[in-house]
Amino acid sequence: MPEPTIRPATPNDLHAVGRMGAQLMRVHYEFDRDRFMRPGADAEAGYAWFLGSQLNERDSLVLVGEREREVVAYLYAAIEPRNWQALLDRAGIVHDIFVDPAHRGAGIAEALMHTAFGWMRAHGVPRVVLSTATPNVRARRLFERLGFRHTMIEMTKELNPGG
């Protein structure tokens, strides 16, 4: 199988990344319907709009992974300033990474992450932070393999259960 091509996303990629972003929403919603946003009927368009709004932001990065000219993965990251509330100095945040299930296990996620690390280093970012859903064991293994360590545990309590 040919090596994936990793490149910055363009407006022409928004349909594909919107579709994958909506898939990411659906997976998380199935993990925990109370914690994660319900993906509505317009999730693809909403995600495409949102990621499109990030394409020209100086401190945002949207990458795509291609196989044979087909967009099969994306990554969305941003550089965040010091955040007193989160007790976090300036950092790169990986917000999303998604690889089409038919293309998983072929190194595309690692290639996307390494490209993002290079972009963050070039911007003088000292660390990368991300979060992942607890049931997403495959993603957690990837992040641990890339050198991430556990630092926080998010906890959620519903104030109006069932309502």
| Name of the CATH first level | Alpha Beta
Rg, Cα atoms, Å: 16 Å
- What is the name of the CATH architecture? 3-Layer(aba) Sandwich
CATH fold name: Aminopeptidase
Q: Hey, roughly how much beta strand do the residues contain?
A: 15-25%
Overall 3D shape: globular
Physical arrangement of strands within the biggest beta sheet:
1-2-3-4-5
- Counting structural domains, the number is 1
Note poorly predicted spans. none
Mind explaining what this structure looks like?
The protein has 163 residues and is α+β, with helices and mostly antiparallel strands. It has one domain: 3-Layer(aba) Sandwich (Aminopeptidase). Helix content is 33%, strand content 21%. It contains four helices and five strands; from the N terminus they run E-H-H-E-E-E-H-E-H. Strands 1-2-3-4-5 form a five-stranded mixed beta sheet. The chain is globular and about 50 Å long. The N and C termini lie far apart (49 Å).
Summarize the structure.
Helix content is about 35%, strand content about 20%.
Question: What characteristics describe this protein?
Answer:
163 residues; alpha+beta; Aminopeptidase; 5-stranded mixed beta sheet; 4 helices; 21% strand
